[in-house]
């Protein structure tokens, strides 16, 4: 909770004013029974109409003051709670940006989405309600009790008979509430995960006629959410009747003994009415308690989940100071030195003792069967993961010593699955270089063989992609992804099987265009035709280097490469037949 409070700090004055205004409302509420007592004892009983009018008028004025305080309080509470939620959400989002890929495994995306949406909203709502009414409720109880003691000590004593029991009961219920609602938020995570997976795979769901199955999967998790929420709320439902029962017993005791004292002339009627009024206000406040405990327990559970993310200090991308000592003569060079790697949380190595070098401007094709480790190898370069052992040198410097920003700026990475963001094509391309000029955008698009297609779109580069925009083909998406990488004029261009959806003609035009690139290129490919055009080929087999050399060398020395070449030749013959 401490961390949550640090996000309220910048708005402490808004919160402070809101609390002051709430105290004004509270004071008016607590003074009212005293005024009623005065009207009864000094006005009605003594038949003094002037006193009734005077205190009646004061009561009206105070009620108006409380109304004004309430309206102004809403403004300050809303500003403090909305700003708090805005800052908290941004802080969470920024923290997530610094996660390593391993930490992402610990926090699945659905859980992060719940934290950034529902969890933030729960805490924001509680902050607003606290400044508005929640803080007031316990104060109404305490204030009413104190005022009751001020009016008549012996009668007020009956109101605290059940206090120790109530305190213990509320403590237990809050603890239960936090545990239950923490489970509920986990259920929300699961519901979000099913929705997310379903929407991402909507075509597959339709193609495999799995709509009904998906609906029943959703129903199962939604049902679990319903069950856990009902269980939590059912438990909380005991709060109100028990509190009201204890309060009503106390009230009966006040009336019973109060009536006796009036008959004996020890107490005035106005005093009894005032105490009953305070007791009713306490009862009214207690009836809000179950609602408050539900909100508070939910918010506490959400706050804990958010703090889990905010307070993480391991599993963040480790950066080093930029010492600017790069050796210009080694620019564009790459060296893997005995690199082995296993994914975190797994036991098996997927890369073993990989060693190879790549000169400036060299084009390296990486081949191997599916699952042989090609994508994994590429992901070590921008340090999405760190090697388990061995070293990787970029521009002659160990990647561990590169400032992350500089290292990634030097790399144009095109992943296996082309991903575009909602927005215009221009925005998607300049995502790779925010200050790119129109000419630079077009140049990259021409090189990636997508310029003509874009020009034929209804609004050219301003055409929107994604939802409410044009639907792009797989090949168009791949070429836009390549253009996005090229626009940075990277030192290293990494293409992870990024041309798989292109036809032969477009692909060979693309390779021709990339021939003039100064960047050192690492190209994962399954095609001998593409590998032939590379300077050297790295052939992987079960995570190990099976062969490394030019096409001619591999044709001579590598049986695996010969097999791949032969099978692709057969395929071409079949295709041409
Ligand atoms: N995030 C991950 N966590 C654990 N294991 C993984 C992860 N990603 C990949 N692997 C495993 O690592 C091995 C190498 O996978 P990788 O994706 O690098 O192969 P690849 O050669 O690129 O395959 P493909 O040609 O099918 O893309 C596979 O056995 C795969 O199951």
UniProtKB/TrEMBL annotation:
It is found in: Cell membrane. GO terms for molecular function: ATP binding. Keywords: ATP-binding, Membrane, Nucleotide-binding, Transmembrane, Transmembrane helix. Its main location: membrane. InterPro entries: AAA+_ATPase (IPR003593), ABC1_TM_dom (IPR011527), ABC1_TM_sf (IPR036640), ABC_transporter-like_ATP-bd (IPR003439), ABC_transporter-like_CS (IPR017871), P-loop_NTPase (IPR027417), Type_1_exporter (IPR039421). Residues 334-567 form the ABC transporter domain. The chain crosses the membrane at residues 13-31, 52-76, 238-258, 278-296. Residues 16-298 form the ABC transmembrane type-1 domain. Pfam families: ABC_membrane, ABC_tran. Gene3D superfamilies: ABC transporter type 1, transmembrane domain, P-loop containing nucleotide triphosphate hydrolases. SMART domains: AAA (SM00382). It is a multi-pass membrane protein. This is ABC transporter ATP-binding protein. It comes from Viridibacillus soli.
